[in-house]
Write a structure and sequence with these properties.
By secondary structure, the protein is an all-alpha fold. 71% of the residues lie in helices and 0% in strands. The protein is built from 10 helices and no strands. Helix 1 (2-34) runs antiparallel to helix 4, helix 2 runs antiparallel to helix 5 (128-147) and helix 3 packs antiparallel against helix 4. The model has no long low-confidence stretch (mean pLDDT 85).
Length: 265
């Protein structure tokens, strides 16, 4: 009974954390739309869209995948929301957004999610590099927009947004050529856009160069290549004692890898 009660409490806490992350993901873009601060309209829109997309990914990852990376992404989004609050004008929506992201951060860091959200990466799941790379690509336009202050560079920012979103979708779906798109198309594209932004928007050019370089380094790691090959149908073997109970039950084997006795009808 205690275990069942603790499980229900953990599930409710996970749902509340996902709802707060999503609410924060809606509130901060609303603040940017109403009071963009020192950013241009295009930069505010790109920053808001990226924050909303990442919040949606984190909320879905918490509820559906119960993934550790989703919890960590929630931490980063809560911190990013607090940083946005420092530079945006204060208003009613600002206070709502601040409350949502603060509550989400506190709940995500607390112990209540321990029964639902995994504390370790999933056995046989994608490596860290394969998770970080598309998330970094989705976040890149927002990070560049946050540092962009010059006018007249909206075309560069929109081009970077399109390139980043296409490459992130390409890699996450492991479409044909996804690995080379991450290794070649994205780094070359970001470097080209950084050159075009220089010297009119030096901070944006520097951030674009750094993000493209980091993405290229991640894409060339062996684990990234293995993740693309594994998702194309290669089975992953691991000891049965490391498998989740629901996987063993579905396969009809016990903790030692032996077939479970069939129950009488």
């Amino acid at each position: 009974m205690k275990t069942s009660r603790a499980g229900r409490q953990s599930w409710r806490a996970t749902g509340a954390a996902a709802a707060l992350v999503m609410a924060s993901g809606l509130a901060w873009p609303a603040v940017l739309a109403v009071t963009p601060g020192t950013h241009t309209a295009t930069a505010s829109a790109v920053l808001g869209v990226c924050y909303l997309l990442l919040s949606t990914i984190a909320a879905v990852g918490l509820l559906v995948a119960r993934a550790l990376w989703a919890r960590r992404l929630g931490y980063l989004l809560a911190a990013a929301g607090l940083l946005l609050g420092l530079v945006l004008p204060i208003g009613l929506i600002w206070w709502c957004a601040l409350g949502f992201c603060t509550a989400a951060g506190i709940l995500l860091m607390g112990p209540l999610l321990g029964g639902q959200v995994r504390t370790r990466p999933l056995i046989g799941g994608p490596p860290t590099e394969a998770v970080v790379l598309p998330l970094l690509q989705v976040a890149s336009p927002g990070l560049v927009a946050a540092f962009s202050t010059a006018k007249g560079t909206d075309a560069n920012l929109l081009a970077l947004t399109g390139l980043s979103f296409v490459c992130a979708f390409w890699f996450s779906r492991t479409l044909s050529g996804a690995l080379w798109a991450a290794r070649l198309v994205y780094p070359v594209g970001t470097l080209t856009l950084a050159v075009l932004a220089f010297p009119r928007d030096l901070p944006a050019a520097i951030v674009t160069t750094i993000l493209g370089t980091v993405a290229a380094l991640i894409a060339f790691r062996p684990a990234t290549a293995r993740s693309v090959r594994q998702t194309r149908g290669r089975p992953v073997a691991f000891p049965p004692e490391l498998a989740p109970p629901e996987v063993l039950d579905a396969a009809g084997i016990d903790d030692d890898g032996r077939p479970q006795p069939s129950e009488p009808a």
